[in-house]
Design goal:
By secondary structure, the protein is mainly α. 89% of the residues lie in helices and 0% in strands. It is built from 2 helices and no strands.
Length: 70
C-alpha cells in the first residue's frame, strides 16, 4: 500500500487526495470544529462568570466585615 501511494505523482498525494477528503468529510470536519469552538467559548464564559462571582463576593465580604456591619 505504501509503495502504491509513493508511486503516485506529487500533485495526487498533496492536492487531489486532500481535496477529495475535504469534499467528502468537509461537513463533518466543519461541524466538529464548530462544536469544539462553541465548547471552548462556553468554558471561557463560565470561567469569566465564576471569576466575577468570586471577585464580587470577596469585595462585598471584605467591605462589610471592615465596616462594622449594620
Amino acid at each position: 500500500m505504501k509503495e502504491l501511494f509513493r508511486s503516485l505523482p506529487w500533485w495526487v498525494r498533496w492536492v487531489a487526495i486532500p481535496a477529495i477528503v475535504l469534499v467528502v468529510f468537509g461537513g463533518l470536519i466543519t461541524s466538529v470544529l464548530t462544536w469544539v469552538m462553541s465548547l471552548m467559548f462556553k468554558i471561557l464564559v463560565c470561567a469569566a462568570l465564576i471569576a466575577l462571582l468570586i471577585f464580587l463576593v470577596r469585595k462585598f465580604t471584605a467591605s462589610s466585615s471592615s465596616g462594622g456591619g449594620w
